[in-house]
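Quick one: Sugar ABC transporter from Paenibacillus pini JCM 16418, structure tokens please.
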Amino acid sequence: MQPAISKEHKIRQMKSSRFSLGTTLMYIALTAWSLTTIYPLFWVVNNSFKVSNDVINSSFSLSLKPVLVNYTTAFDRINLGKSYINSLIMSGGTVLLVLLFGGLAAYVLARFTFKAKRPIFSLLYATLLIPAFATVVPVYEILIKTSLVNTYWGLILPHTAGNLTFATLVIAGYMSTIAKELEEAAFIDGCNRWQMFVKIFFPVSRPAFASVSIFVFLWSYNDLFSALIFVNKESVRPIVALLSQISSQYGTDFGLMATAVTLTVIPILIVYLFISKFIEKGLTEGAIKG
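--- reply ---
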């Protein structure tokens, strides 16, 4: 019995050493990844509390005496607050419209059976192959004819149309995994199609809706190309367009540049922190269930 116990003990030791080695390598990789992502963000935030000369002379040193002059300049002289509001209105409006129309379209495609269902899916997948730059000229002409250039709708509508296909496909893939028994029970309880969507499919599909919302918000919020073309007026200019202007007009004021970048990233972090727990679940559960 003693040799058998000794052999089993050796096997456990080998497994433990392998596990320790794998865990160590995993932590090393995660640490290296965090240094390439978290540290640059910390570097920008740290330099936002320095004047321009300190950023040039000691950009990698910790700001022991932080100053708020860059933040006061950003809101007083550059009117960063107005651009914040513009970005939140346009990106938030885009997210709401995409979730509404994309959710309804996904519900129809996932739970109804009709002849044109497969061609519609094929058409939706085909539209993903069309580059956004190819639609700029016709979209701009439509906005001019409808007098929507340099208005909130001038960016909300193009962003909604551009993100609608992605939202529809993701949400439809998730809704198709919902059990039919749940739908049949709702019919027995007297729910119509709208009530079923609002009270059953929307709550059950919240992970998918949350995943879509974060991606749509990021794409809309960071779309500098469309912002420079469709809403280049100062009264409706989003924050990414203002950041581009700051880099061209105040390119030598590195403290102000760091402040602008910091303030641009804050809304993204806030939105992500609120719905981060739904993102991974929404992207993976539809592929696993059923």
